[in-house]
Design a protein that fits this description.
The chain has 355 residues and is an alpha/beta fold. The protein has 14 helices and 14 strands. A 5-stranded mixed beta sheet has the order 10-9-11-8-12. A 3-stranded parallel beta sheet has the order 4-1-5. A two-stranded antiparallel ribbon has the order 2-3. Strand 9, helix 6 and strand 10 form a beta-alpha-beta unit. The relative contact order is 0.14.
Length: 355
Amino acid sequence: MALALGLTAAACGDRETGTGDKAAPIVAATEAPEFVSPTLQAIKRRGRVNCGVHEGLVGFAYTDNRGEWRGFDVDFCRALAAAVLGSPDAVRFVPLTSSQRFDALRGGRIDVLWRATSWTMSREISEGVRFAGVNYYDGQGFLVRRSLDLASAQELNGARVCVQHETTSELNVADFFRARGLEYRAVVATNEEAARSAYAREDCDALSADISALAAARTLLSNPEQHAILPDVISKEPLGPAVKRGDEAWTSIVRWTLNALILAEELGVTAGNADQLAKESRDPQIRRLLGAEGDLGPTMGLSRDWAKNAIEASGNYGEIFVRNLGPDSPLDLARGLNAQWRARPGGLIYALPLR
């Protein structure tokens, strides 16, 4: 052992080598940087989370007849507010168009963007944002009138296609037709409502967007049963929360709140039984999740029961899905790719280890 240590010192020491060059000095080990989030500090000072959401998308983010915000993304915003501040009501919803969303995030108008936004390479590199995870796996498709009697999107050669400006949908449609040597004419709308209205007026033959958005759009048409979503899925659209680049600690807080809700479904923890399980469960995973043991919350600057607060605010991932997108909602979407990984058939929803 002494010989080995001697060789290491000789090889790594700051001395002249046979070639006349100096060897690189040994770099001393350093402690991990402190977990500090300027965004979290600002949120605690103001007493609320500013959450960017869609300006109006059935199932995901919309206001009901009483002016209350509802939806899949809205529930995740409330859960985050509960995790951070202890109350699901400590949140301000900021409705944003697709062209406003990243400017609002970079400019500090919002703390988190939870607005049916696809995680792409160019957005992380060019838009100054970081994605904290995926809460919905989607794909792009086409909504058409049943009277056209179409079986596939490949029959849309020469069609007029309504798409929303400055979205991945606009780019994906161009790729789809170009790759197949098909012709089409894009009818570009400024926002989702305008695209849907243009389709309803028959200014185009098909409406292309994320399939979940098409399902929502169909419910708003005068005769929903006269419209069908074609079976073609032309893209991968992993939707999830985005935050401003530069605050890694805040990114972690958003990421682990999402994972806590996913893990809660895996472990059978619900809004209704979380409090009881925190007191009675002997399962180490459940006890860590609900703050009955361990210091996961305090290590992030949150309370010990941060995840319990989040679960009690909106329910676990499955409860949020069923209520807003599944059989208890107008969209009635199947879990599909958004089923738990242990389901049969399995989905892609998988919690990272909380430990």
